[in-house]
Amino acid sequence: MKVIFAAAIWEVCDVLNSGKFGFKKLKTRPFEVWKSKKSLVVISGIGLVNAYAAFAWAAGEYRFSSALNVGMAGRTMNFKLPKGEEHAKMGFLYKISASSCIEPYNDHVFDLSKSGKTLVTSSRPVETRSDRIRAGKLAELVDMEGYAFARAAKIYGKKLAMYKLVSDFSPKCNIRANTLALRHKLAEADWLWI
Question: Residues 178-187: pLDDT tens digits?
Answer without folding.
Answer: 777 778 888 8
